[in-house]
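Exam revision sheet. Question 4 asks you to relate a sequence to its structure. Input first:
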Amino acid sequence: MSAVAVVGAGIVGSSVAYHLARRDIPVTLLDQGRSPATGVTGTSFAWIGGCGGDWPGGARDLRASVVADYRRLEDELPDIAVRWTGSLTWTDDREGHDSPLGPGRFRVGGSDIAALEPNLRNPPERAVHTPSDGGIDPTAVTTALVDAARRHGATVLHNSAVTSLAMAGERVEGVWSSTGFHAAETVVLAAGADTPRLCEPLGADVPVVTPPVCLVRLAAPAGLVRTIVACPDFEVREVRDGELLLTLPPAAGTGATSSEQVARAALRQVRTAFRGSEGCRFLGYRVCGPPMPAHGPVIGAVTRDRSVYLAVMHSGVTLAPTVGRLVADELVTGRPAVELRHCRPLRPAP
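Answer key, structure tokens:
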């Protein structure tokens, strides 16, 4: 296969570049940041798992491979480590409490919840426990993927913002960036929210929204939160010993909200929910806008000659190892991956 240019060194683009490079495909990975994961990847809550959560569109066909692909990456790349803590989730909605759960998910209550999260002040009557879930440091994982791609021969160009596709008639022959022209037989756009702009010359419609998400970091006693807890008001997990990552509703992350207000809201949530949290301290917060395609992941060729390939999705952190493997296989072999059949982009009318 001829050279591939991958646009975007978030976790999705980095995974695609790694999986191509390890199959000896010439790859150039371009990113506008000074280092990997400087965009929304680095601000992700980074909850991974094969069950539960929102899996729109074709993401449903990818869910079963997520845990296995992360465990494979742990074996391939020693710098990648997942905190396999499991998750505990519940909602205020009592409807559906008796509906079937997917494999690997279990309804728990009473003593089981207390054993999983002994510091909960007011545990729910029932919750869903997914033992196979985990969390990662998304910046560390992305950096590991980029470093491994480079070891396999990939060219990595930071501070190289891609401004446009390089067109020759209707064919794409590479990309133009702030560092010049980069020729490629195939361009993979893993540029998140910037993907629709880059696709405009092709006439392709790639609807992507970026709803605000507020992520707060707190210093906390080690082990205060044991699993990934997702309750009606927030999600929280321990990202490393003594540090929590917490999501707050979008209203808490608007531009008009001060750091002091966010700190008060986050500390109030944690202190209300967990015993032993009185010593928690506010470390900081960021508001990000993860790219969310309207109908689920958009993965596949958007031009009839297959010279432009899209890979934009939510959650990219969850799906990146699986998508990187499948995209590399499609590009190398030319055979469509059945798991991606419901993710295909709409091509422009001829």
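Marking note for examiners. The chain is about 25% helix and 25% strand.
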